[in-house]
Amino acid sequence: MSAENTRNFCIIAHVDHGKTTLSDRLLEHTNQVSARVLTDQHLDSMDLEKERGITIKSHPVTMTYPAKDGKVYKLNLMDTPGHVDFSYEVSRSLAACEGAVLLIDAAQGVEAQTVANAHLAVGQRLKIIPVINKIDLPSANLELCLKQLEDILTIPAEEAILASGKAGIGIEEILEAVVHRVPPPRWTDYPQARALVFDSLYDAYRGVIAYVRVFSGTLKSGDMMLLMSNGLRSEIKEVGIFTPKMEKVDALGAGDTGYIVSNVKDTSEIKTGDTITLSRHPATQMLPGYKEVRPMVFCGLYPVDTSDYEKLKAALGRLRLNDAAFVYSSESSVALGFGFRCGFLGLLHMEIIQERIRREHDVDIISTYPSVVYRVVKHGGEVIEVDNPINLPDPGTITEIQEPTIKAAIHIPNDAMGDILALVMEKRGVVDHTDTLDATRVMLTCILPLNEILVDFNDRLKSITHGYGSMDYELGEYRTADLVKMEILINGDPVDAFASIVHRDKAEGKGRELCEKLAEIIPPQMFKVAIQAAIGGKVIARDNVKEMRKDVTAKCYGGDISRKRKLLDKQKEGKKKMKQFGRVSIPSDAFIKVLKTN
Ligand code: GTP
């Protein structure tokens, strides 16, 4: 099929506005694959996605659509993740398309990521097809959505398609709009072959599988490809398309979306956003949009059971193969032994990786307090980056500490304004400006320290606004702040895993909160345990863990030994999930609980 009859498009939306449901419908309509097979074979590949109801990885798929104009079109669709942590993946998918279906939940209206994603799409010069989705909902407010479309996104309301992925309304109309409104593939005339890598996957047997959008030229097995960012050459072993399962084809031509299997065995060598060209006639100019992703949030991950160290190492290695945005290196902690320092795009990314280690690799892990990357200026002008509080140099040698900030766009109902302003202030943020979105909603543009939004900002925003608030952010600049290292001492010994870098003004309150929380979470011990928070050796808060003796077999009268053994085994099992700190046992999930509630 010629490039003239090919359309590459994606679906973008705020999280939960129905992208996955709608993509399934489009596939069904084009008889690509039944929804059931799709669920079983394709989306099921990541249990977590289903459980959390969010898309983590983008799934491309090629459909054949006989349009009303009598011509048959090849439609390449990318489903994109909506969560802010994965906006890098969204922009990669966008770069591989000429058009974007922008979904708006009819009951929710335009949200922060609707705006952010629409801006990304406009920035990439994509044709936007606005779709008001979920119109089957009784709470749908079409009038408001259409008005928001014009007022907030400056898209004419008459361009909107009314649809429901669930009820199957508007599906054909969307496909027709894709055919007629989205332009055919661009840059096909470029003299050499160029393909954009928008994702990659590691397969144990075939090595790295690069997901590509071919812009010009033809790629086929036997060709020697060249990766433009690092000059790596490798023979192409196989090319194919997604139906959505991988299906081998003879060649990928201009305008096609598909995959390439080569000799490359390490995902870090094929980076998302790179351009693949052919070694014999290499292109001289890369396709636009290549950006190195940098992890923003770091934490230490340690096996609860030290004998699981190798297993954890293998698990991280495997996860890294499929996720170039995730990095790790070995580190050790006095309290936790040998483990790894890991870097993530954001907190959700961190939670997902941790969850996958536990579930898919069956390793029980402890994570330390997450940290952003600080810049420390030392006397004499040397600047070092610190992503682990325990590596903070002696305060006497430091001129200043700078922390990363974000520029956040926060959409909220008018009546939540007061509470949200208080929250922003509590988090050391400043409101740059406010914009009225419509009669009931405003958008605050704020500058906040990244560190302050790591743990609970989004949850608090949702709870204050009863779920109607949303946020999107981009990284801002580094700013100087009065930051100090706070340590937690258990029975006088600092537990390095709980060390954190905090703002001096907040240290005391935070220290008190942490001590109280730990005292609550750590089960009563055989002896009294003191928990203290300290800055530079000066204690700023303290609490105690209760003392108690518990004989689990006390309730067993007589000599039923098997019953007794069972209870003791059960107790032992419980103990296994504890981490020993000197003589104090701390449940392995204490760290996470402390984090969550802090
Ligand atoms: P992310 O991938 O996490 O961004 O979510 P998504 O945008 O792919 O949303 P998804 O398709 O998973 O749908 C989110 C929720 O909305 C699910 O509970 C769906 O059942 C529901 N939903 C999706 N489309 C419709 C619709 O047209 N009508 C109604 N009533 N519910 C829908």
UniProtKB/TrEMBL annotation:
Pfam families: EFG_C, GTP_EFTU, GTP_EFTU_D2, LepA_C
Membrane topology: Peripheral membrane protein
Reaction(s) this enzyme catalyzes, per UniProt: GTP + H2O = GDP + phosphate + H(+)
Entry-linked Gene3D superfamilies: 3.30.70.240, Elongation factor 4, C-terminal domain, Elongation Factor G (Translational Gtpase), domain 3, P-loop containing nucleotide triphosphate hydrolases, Translation factors
Domain Tr-type G: 4-186
EC id: 3.6.5.n1
Residues reported to bind GTP: 16-21, 133-136
Origin: domain of life: Bacteria
UniProt GO cellular component terms: plasma membrane
GO biological process: positive regulation of translation
UniProt subcellular location: Cell inner membrane
Alphabetical keyword list: Cell inner membrane, Cell membrane, GTP-binding, Hydrolase, Membrane, Nucleotide-binding, Protein biosynthesis
UniProt key word Transmembrane helix: no
Gene Ontology molecular function terms on file: GTP binding; GTPase activity; ribosome binding; translation elongation factor activity
InterPro entries per the UniProt record, alphabetical: EF-4, EFG_III/V, EFG_V-like, EFTu-like_2, LepA_C_sf, LepA_CTD, LepA_IV, P-loop_NTPase
Enzyme class: hydrolase
Signal peptide residues on this chain, from the entry's feature table: none
Function: Required for accurate and efficient protein synthesis under certain stress conditions. May act as a fidelity factor of the translation reaction, by catalyzing a one-codon backward translocation of tRNAs on improperly translocated ribosomes. Back-translocation proceeds from a post-translocation (POST) complex to a pre-translocation (PRE) complex, thus giving elongation factor G a second chance to translocate the tRNAs correctly. Binds to ribosomes in a GTP-dependent manner.
Sequence similarity: Belongs to the TRAFAC class translation factor GTPase superfamily. Classic translation factor GTPase family. LepA subfamily. Belongs to the GTP-binding elongation factor family. LepA subfamily.
Name of the protein: Elongation factor 4
